[in-house]
Amino acid sequence: MKSMSPEIIIIDDDPINNIICTQQIKRKAPDIKIVDFISPLHGLSYITDEHSQRSSASKTILLLDINMPVMTGWEFLDRFDTLCIDIKNNFMIYILSSSFDPIDKNGAKTNPLVKDFISKPLTEGVIITLLKELRK
Amino acid sequence: MSLKIEIIMQKNLFHLSFDYWEVFLLFIIPALTDISIFIYAFFFLPQNKRNKAFSAFVLLLGIAQALDGIMRLSNTAETAMEWSRISAAPWVFITSFGLLFALRYTKWDRKFSNNLILTFLFLPSILLEFGIIGGLYEVSVEKSELWHWIANPKSTTATNMIYMWNTVTSLVTFVLFWLYYFKVRKDENRRDFSLLIAAGNTIPFVTGITSEVVFPLVLGIEDFPISTPAITIFSVSILIAIVKYKAFDYSPKHQWKNILETMNEGVLIVNNQDQIMYANKAFCEQTGYEFGELKGVIARNLLTDEIESKKKVEQVIKEREDKKSSQYEILIKTKRGQKIWTLISGSPYLDIHGNVIGSIGIHTNISELKLANNELKLFIYKASHDLRGPLASILGLTDLIHHENDKEKIKNYSAMIDYSAKKLDTVLINLAKNMQIKEIDRFDDEINFGELINETLKRFVGYEGFQYISITKEIMLEELFFSNKLIMESVFQNIIENAIKYRDLSFANPWLKISISKIENRIQIVFLDNGIGIEPSFQNRVFEMYFRGTETSKGSGLGLYLVKTAIDKLGGTIEVESKKNNGTKFLISLPVVKSKVI
């Protein structure tokens, strides 16, 4: 069994957004583990590699962008859905996007894997709610 | 015996002398004027109910005036008597037609059915006419001081009834004109001519009363014949109203067929069973059918394909039965099977009794509008990512700076703000360029490809990676090429930029080869590089707005979309051939525009 501490994963092709998210979360929770990827494929292989050995005791938050080259957030979720149920149950996935296209918002609402839609930029208030969810 | 009388009568008819200039002045000139107005009204004005009533009125008036004039030229009492009888004939109809015109001109005739009006106006006229033919109209002939002989009607029941009839109809006409004037006097367009017509009617009306009643009874002056000629003032005033004040020009009715045939919108009339009864030229052009192919066909079966559109039409037909108008959009199938979005403004089609006998629809092709709307929608939502993305980053970064004390970190964040702001700027500039390209309509710049490439390359000095790539050009073109310089620059700029950005960093010598040649009357431009290439599954998507094909892409996803817009504008084609990690080839083919002759 590996680390039991809660974790936040960020997948967004925009490195600046990943820096902003990491720094903002660190401000509120300095000891939390944050991993970020600009490639959804790399993110996916990280999840399959690391999380298959995890216990279900700790939760993980995934902040996922939609508009990414090569693989969109939705395509990522399709691939994620094929992972084993133990991994999936550990995850709370939030869409983090700057889009105000209703298709994206509705997609986030109707996708059973997605918990909610968060509009960029990630703010303090949202982080506090996320951390509460994580520590439940 | 009767034959003999007829001959005598005919002989009597022409016992005329033409030495009275007053007759010409008072009768023949007005008569000729009225007949001229008749010719104008009947042959040159559009034929509708109102103008027909007016034409009949002036024609009969002209004839009556002429007959009255001829009577006054009579040398014998018999002649005068014959002409007097003949001249009475038109009169019973003149005032009826005058009133009919007044009713149609004021549009108050719509309150009654046409048959009712015609019966009330012309049944008395016809009966009185029979009275005249039957000899009930009696005249007394006497020697006049002014003329040779004149005939005056005797006061019999028949003549009194004729007089009564003329007076009543004239009075009603007079009242109608003034009522109409008071009704429309605040309407600038109708004020002047309605006053003119009312006044034009009043003059003969007052003159008639004066000369027929006041002069003989009060002043004792008999036979001062100005009432008949004065009516010409009325017909002339109507003529002026028509010609000068364009009184009837703006009534759409007389032109509706012409308007329907020349308008850009398609017009379709169907009956209650949705069978096509009428289609104008524009409708036939829109759908590609001849009217012969459309007539009698069930419109929704022929013109719609989709269940949704058919349902919409069925719903609309129900609305029409309740006399409701409405606007709706459906997909219409043309003869060639093409589908066009059409906006239909439909109204119930009524018969004269107000019953719904069908539906009339104005059809506007809104396919282009729909396309533009969709593009706009796509643009706004897509823009939310590409415009809001960097903006959200800037907001996030400023928030971080607020909570940061470390100077180095703050410096770092400001650099990121700078980067995000520039990215935003690039997106906006590219969108503006795209708009500019779409609006270009001039293609007569002489294009010197050598110069064009050199100028474009100059702009890349200092651009990251530009110094590492070697760019060669090969121009095999002997004649001049004309196009739009702005568009051509945009094409070269974006493809060269991509070649620099997506060069293969593992290669020591990245290169781009540009070659331009003429093949079979078309200009062919080839960009070949040894860059990272495009994955096969993305190749048909690289020209899409905001599409980005690699994870290393820092671009806006607009570059090749701009190129595609530009090439489309020039009527050319662009193809891409590439293998992942094995270079990219863009092949552009442009038609030769011969816009300038030197």
What would you call the shape of chain B?
Answer: elongated
Can you say what the CATH homologous superfamily of chain A is? Answer: Response regulator
Return the string of H and E elements of chain A. Answer: EHEHEHHEHEH
Summing up helix and strand content along with how strands pair, one would put the structural category of chain A as: alpha/beta
CATH class of the largest domain in chain B reads: Mainly Alpha
Average residue-wise pLDDT of chain B: 85
Report how far the terminal alpha carbons of chain A are from each other.
Answer: 21 Å
* Terminal-residue CA separation of chain B: 97 Å
CATH topology of chain A: Rossmann fold
Low-confidence stretches of chain A: none
Summarize this entry quickly:
Chain A has 136 residues and is of the alpha/beta class. Chain A is built from 6 helices and 5 strands.
Features:
heterodimer, A: 136 residues, alpha/beta, five-stranded parallel sheet, B: 598 residues, alpha+beta, Rhopdopsin 7-helix transmembrane proteins, Beta-Lactamase, 4 domains, 55% helix, 16% strand, elongated, disordered N terminus
Provide a descriptive summary of the structure in words.
The complex is a heterodimer of chains A (136) and B (598). Chain A is α/β, with parallel strands linked by helices. Chain A contains six helices and five strands. Chain A has helices spanning 15-28, 40-51, 73-81, 85-90, 102-110, 124-135, and strands at residues 7-11, 33-37, 60-64, 91-97, 114-119. In chain A, strands 2-1-3-4-5 form a five-stranded parallel sheet. In chain A, β1, α1 and β2 (33-37) form a beta-alpha-beta unit. The two termini of chain A are 21 Å apart. By secondary structure, chain B is an alpha+beta fold. Chain B has four domains: 2-250, Rhopdopsin 7-helix transmembrane proteins; 255-365, Beta-Lactamase (2-Layer Sandwich), CATH 3.30.450; 367-431, Orthogonal Bundle (Helix Hairpins); 440-591, Histidine kinase-like ATPase, C-terminal domain (Heat Shock Protein 90). Chain B contains 18 helices and 14 strands. Chain B has helices spanning 2-13, 21-43, 49-71, 77-106, 114-133, 157-184, 188-219, 227-243, 256-262, 281-287, 291-294, 299-303, 307-321, 367-402, 407-439, 449-458, 485-501, 559-569; strands at residues 139-143, 149-153, 266-271, 276-279, 326-333, 339-350, 356-365, 445-447, 470-476, 481-483, 511-519, 522-529, 573-578, 584-591. In chain B, strands 4-3-7-6-5 form a five-stranded antiparallel sheet, sandwiched between helices. A five-stranded mixed sheet of chain B has the order 9-11-12-14-13, covered by helices on one side. In chain B, strands 1-2 form a two-stranded antiparallel ribbon. In chain B, β5 (326-333) and β6 form a beta hairpin. In chain B, α3 (49-71) packs antiparallel against α8 (227-243), α6 (157-184) packs antiparallel against α7 (188-219) and α17 (485-501) runs antiparallel to α18 (559-569). The radius of gyration of chain B is 43 Å and the shape is elongated. Mean pLDDT of chain B is 85; it is low at 1-5. Classes of the chains: A alpha/beta (136), B alpha+beta (598). The A-B interface holds A 13-14, 16-17, 19-21, 23-24, 27, 38-39, 66-70, 97-103, 119-124 and B 381-382, 384-385, 388-389, 391-393, 395-397, 399-400, 403, 416, 419-420, 535, 546-551, 553, 557.
